[in-house]
Amino acid sequence: MNNPIGVFASIDAGLGVRLEVAHELGIKTIQLHTPAKQSRTDANAQAFSKKLNNLGITVTTVFLGFEGETYETIARTAETVGFIPPATRQARLTESCDIADFAAKLGVSAIGSHIGFVPHDQNSADYKAAVKTIQDLTAHLKKNGQSLHLETGQESADSLLAFIMNVGADNLFINFDPANLILYGIGDPIGALKSVGQFVRGVHCKDATATTGKPGVDWGCEVPFGQGQVDAEKFLRTLFEIGYTGALTIEREIPAEPERQKAEIGQAVELIEELKAKIG
Ligand code: MG
Helices 157-167 and 125-143 meet at what angle, rounded to 10? Predict the structure, then answer.
């Protein structure tokens, strides 16, 4: 398995490991949580590209993030995240295009995003609006030579595939996060990975344990990669089997404490290196 290891990182705003931590751990690829609006300038794009170059780090994906999003509960996530809440839909589409243009200045060809809680009824106005929004966004990305990677979350594999088919864009793919399927109470991530395998262009090496309360209502618990209910070896083996060649991007939702980040991300790097060698 030759996939490079990556880490979910941030430069000024958002969730993720600091660049310096990634560098100290010898990590060569990152997915970047979108920089704050005031940072997305030409001058910063140049300065940031230079910094990445010096550190020998490549950005594989820029991940969208919006003000007002919160993941504090599953219900609040549904109300606030992605392109489903109607009140912010158009403004977020416009901002996503701006972020994509900034990513293009960094030479990044993939944009990652949670779409939010897609309604189950494909005939509902909100479902149709979400499809149209993603059609508009993928059309904009296409002009930049970019693709959109939808983060797996609360949808089943079937719903996600149906959504992709309904959008019908040839630059729409999946960023597969196995832990999210456990956190949102969807179930077996490995089976889902096999179902959507042909669309997977990015992954998060993230782990979780299922809720002991009500699945789909109460959050499960996010834990260090290898310590939860994602079978790490099976996950990597399945990626190998479906022919996935992209980065294995470690995502860990812990506070920006460099020492803790270094220790926990470092352990995940060791585990992934070990498994890669074992898989061959
Ligand atoms: Mg993720």
Answer: 60
